[in-house]
Amino acid sequence: KFKGEYLKSFPCSLEVLADTEVEYIEMPGWKEKIDQVRDFKNLPKNARDYVEKIEELVGCPVSSIGVGVKRDDIIFK
Questions:
Q1: What stretches in the chain show pLDDT beneath 50?
Q2: Which of 26, 31, 35, 38 is the most buried (most CB within 10 A)?
């Protein structure tokens, strides 16, 4: 927030950025390994909830989710 108002984009002014208050959202995590998962519905519930929260906040669907370090460790949603 900047002066009590939510910003619609990242501030380009360092002065505005310095006076911006970050709002954090805490969500439960997961301990299951997900690097072998290739279907969104097979992710742990908390991981699915996390992706859906991102979609809600940014206002557009997530099309791919990285689940590991390899190039093919991706879920296409």
A1: none
A2: 38
